[in-house]
Amino acid sequence: MTRPGAGASRWALVDEGWSDLRRAWSQTSYCMRRLRDDPQCADEEMAALLDEADPGLSQQLSFDPQADVAAPLIAHGARPRVAVLREQGVNGQLEMAAVLDRAGFEAHDLHMSDLLGGVRTLAGFSGLVACGGFSYGDVLGAGGGWARSILFHERTRSDFERFFNRSDTFSLGVCNGCQMFALLRELIPGAQHWPRFLRNRSEQFEARFSMVQIAASPSVLLAGMAGSRLPVAMAHGEGRPQFASERDLRSCVDQGLIAFQYITNRGEVAHTYPANPNGAVEGIAALTSTDGRATITMPHPERVYRTVQNSWHPHDAGEDSGWMRMFRNARLWLG
């Protein structure tokens, strides 16, 4: 409402459509984005912003997030050792260690300098998790310097190759770790068709709370979760997968190696910005290897494993979010 003027005795109602007001509010930012960033992304974001029929964030799970499938194993007191791998610039190790501890693992801080210096090896670890951040400032491409420090160091390369080839281990790469593991695909059985990850289509760092749908895949971390739709935190500047060939993309699709995909709030695979935050073909947000022991994800499930960490959640949600099941699945798979 607006007051017509001094001394006036009545108030006047403003009769404007919500879309018109929102367009006016966002117009300056929109015009700046068209000049600064990818103009088509700016157009797609404005269209999404003005969609009055958008149902918003939601959650639809194929499992009970409060059911602790790993509880019987934890009760026995055995806590398998998992290496939480980091490098200069990595910053996600504390959240990762916390969720692994909660899932029943013994999390070990492992710095690349320990491996390269021969102080420690991957022998004796049941799991290997590479965390998010900005190793080497992404100056050699996201995860590039980190991967090359392994590939071009004979002893360390052999150490990783032995670990990945052990049938009793699992591995997870998140964000920068995802980008790095993708560049190690020649060492990971069943990962030869994985893409590398390039700069986001928007030309900007994207930090969002995005909807994804978990696909049916061999991933041991996502067992029993297929079909679930839920939001997840993401924060990256280079999350757009680029496959070496169309054949590699088709191989990942045909073999069911896509672990989860970005979707719109209506539940459709997202092809436009910002529901698809980086321009990912097929909405790819995560992939797995053919045997399911290695999984890579650009979003950050370790940042939202508790309900209170989520910027939105159903009003009746319990302590654990749906992403907690991913880590409990790892513990259950190890037995």
Instruction: Label the overall shape.
Output: globular
Average pLDDT, rounded to a whole number, is 95
Q: Label the CATH architecture.
A: 3-Layer(aba) Sandwich
Number of helical segments with 4 or more residues: 10
Proportion of helical residues:
25-40%
CATH top level is Alpha Beta
User: How many individual domains?
Assistant: 1
**Taking Cα atoms only, what radius of gyration do you get, to the nearest Å?**
22 Å
Report the CATH superfamily. Class I glutamine amidotransferase (GATase) domain
Percent strand equals: 15-25%
Largest sheet: 9 strands, mixed
Description:
This protein is of the alpha/beta class and 335 residues long. The chain has one domain: 3-Layer(aba) Sandwich (Rossmann fold). It is built from ten helices and eleven strands. The strands form two sheets. A nine-stranded mixed β-sheet has the order 2-1-3-4-11-10-9-6-7. A two-stranded antiparallel sheet has the order 5-8. Helix 1 packs antiparallel against helix 2 and helix 6 crosses helix 8. The mean pLDDT is 95.
Kindly summarize this structure in a few lines.
It contains ten helices and eleven strands.
